[in-house]
Specification:
By secondary structure, the chain is of the alpha/beta class.
């Protein structure tokens, strides 16, 4: 059966690129229609995607699903805040997801829901295991910012699954993408001319390759892959290793007050990061992706180090080259 797919958040670079790629696959891949929805115009040409300017926080999203006979929803409109818009990000992430799920619950046509989640759901703390599997929870909980948003979003999706057990639900928890065209907090951080770091800590980091992220989403649409799956390139990159490969100086800062001090340093350098990123830059985070390979059926093509090096090669020394947009 050819699928009619709704992609949320297409004003973001990642979602817009994915929606266009999906439309290009067309009926040969079992895709009859791709509808993109957002409150703002996408950054580029969407090709064969039908764009609808609407807010998923309103009941209008239900009308879009009904009019377009949507059977597959790909929810990519859950993102870290952009500079100066923390409150708006939380409202869009949480309230937007609640309204979208309410619309899906009423729509008898919807048979598949795919959530673009994040490994931020595991938090970052000194009590973390060596690797998080999908069944583990944040050891010290998540209290604020984007990690708290994503925990709430996943809980609403689980509630929807109980109310509509016949809908196939796939939750994809991805480590941050590193790519010159995708604006993620770590991409912004690494593109900065200096790298604030916590004295006495050298966190382990993982990254997701852009094409791997696209491919996993595509497989979740055209195949039935219910469940929750981690996505991150194999291996880890230490922050000190990343700084050496970038040729960026590390500015060591004390753990107490690191979040505030780091943002001041980066703003002085013409950059910024969300305040909740400081825990990741202190304790790091590593996830186990064996379920993606053994159950989902996808082998990642890039390790975290390969993904990082491709990103590094795209940067000119001392120049911010990340394209703006939500990711």
């Amino acid at each position: 059966m050819a699928r009619s797919v709704l992609v949320t958040g297409v004003a973001g670079t990642f979602a817009s690129l994915f929606a266009r790629r999906l439309a290009d696959l067309g009926e040969g891949a079992g895709i009859s229609k791709v509808v993109g929805i957002d409150t703002m115009l996408p950054p580029g040409d969407l090709g064969g995607v039908k764009f609808v300017r609407a807010d998923i926080r309103t009941p209008v999203v239900g009308k879009v699903i009904a009019v377009e006979d949507v059977d597959t929803v790909v929810h990519l409109d859950v993102n870290p805040p952009r500079r100066g818009r923390t409150g708006g990000a939380k409202e869009l992430n949480v309230i937007g997801t609640m309204q979208l799920l309410a619309a899906c619950q009423r729509a008898s046509t919807v048979t598949k829901f795919i959530l673009g989640s994040s490994t931020a759901v595991y938090g970052s703390s000194p009590r973390d295991p060596a690797m998080f599997t999908e069944s583990l929870l944040a050891r010290d909980g998540v209290r604020s910012g984007f990690p708290k948003d994503i925990v709430e979003v996943e809980s609403y999706v689980r509630g929807f699954a109980r109310r509509r057990p016949e809908v196939i639900i796939t939750t994809l928890r991805a480590a941050q993408i590193l790519h010159p065209s995708i604006d993620t907090p770590l991409a912004t951080y690494f593109a900065s001319p200096v790298l604030p770091a916590v004295m006495g800590f050298d966190p382990r980091l993982q990254f997701t390759d852009l094409n791997d992220a696209f491919a996993v989403l595509e497989q979740a649409i055209v195949k039935d892959r219910p469940g929750t799956f981690n996505i991150a390139g194999d291996g880890v990159v230490l922050l000190s290793q990343a700084a050496r490969r970038l040729g960026r100086p590390i500015i060591p800062l004390p753990p107490f007050g690191f979040a505030t001090a780091a943002r001041r340093v980066l703003r002085a350098a013409g950059s910024d990061i969300p305040p909740d990123l400081h825990r990741l830059l202190t304790y790091g985070r590593v996830v186990d992706t064996s379920a993606l390979r053994d159950i989902f059926g996808y082998d990642l093509t890039r390790t975290s180090l390969q993904t990082f090096e491709e990103f590094r090669d795209s940067l000119r020394p001392g120049v911010m080259s990340v394209v703006g947009g939500r990711a």
